[in-house]
Amino acid sequence: MSWVIGHMAALAALTPNEPSYQPGFEKADTSVTAAIALNGYLGAYFDGDPATSPVNLVRADAPPFLIAHGDLDELVETENPKALVTALRSVSTSPVVYVELPGGHHAFDLFHSFRFEALIDGIEEFAACVRVGKRAS
Questions:
Q1: Does the global pTM surpass 0.85?
Q2: pLDDT tens, 18-48?
Q3: What is the DSSP-derived secondary structure letter of residue 16?
Q4: Domain assignments of the chain as residue spans, ordered by start
Q5: Are 43 and 11 in contact (CB under 8 A)?
Q6: How many CB atoms lie within 10 A of CB 74?
Q7: Cα(37)–Cα(97) distance, integer angstroms
Q8: Which distant-in-sequence residues (6+ apart) come within 8 Å of 134 by Cβ?
Q9: Which residues, at least 6 apart from 51, have a Cβ–Cβ distance to it below 8 Å?
Q10: Which of 18, 57, 109, 127 has a CA between 20 and 30 Å from the CA of residue 116?
Q11: Which CATH superfamily is domain 2-136 in?
Q12: pLDDT for 39-86, tens place per residue?
């Protein structure tokens, strides 16, 4: 289920205030400060609709992204999140961080490990940098 959360976080980050993505809440501010996706599938949904792929929604004003993925993920190949990272880095003016965890399997975040502990430290640092950057502007 964690792949759904990362996918939804990416979609939300890349479609701020887009009425078609927020029926019934068209006037609500749905912008986000940053997006973090752990071990997620970040391509088109299973029906193949290109509008469901974060890769097809990248934009120059995308918020900062941190994407972490295990190099031994059995469910989602590393090329999948790397495609979004590449697309974001080609157009976004915000930081795009990709972390590949050596020895990390899918759902590496379910159990405590030294890898996950190091990632948590990195996420905290990423969030602190985003927060400082937000205050400075």
A1: yes
A2: 998 889 998 999 999 999 999 889 999 888 8
A3: T
A4: 2-136
A5: no
A6: 9
A7: 11
A8: 33
A9: 57
A10: 57
A11: Alpha/Beta hydrolase fold, catalytic domain (3.40.50.1820)
A12: 889 999 888 899 899 999 999 999 999 999 999 999 999 999 999 999
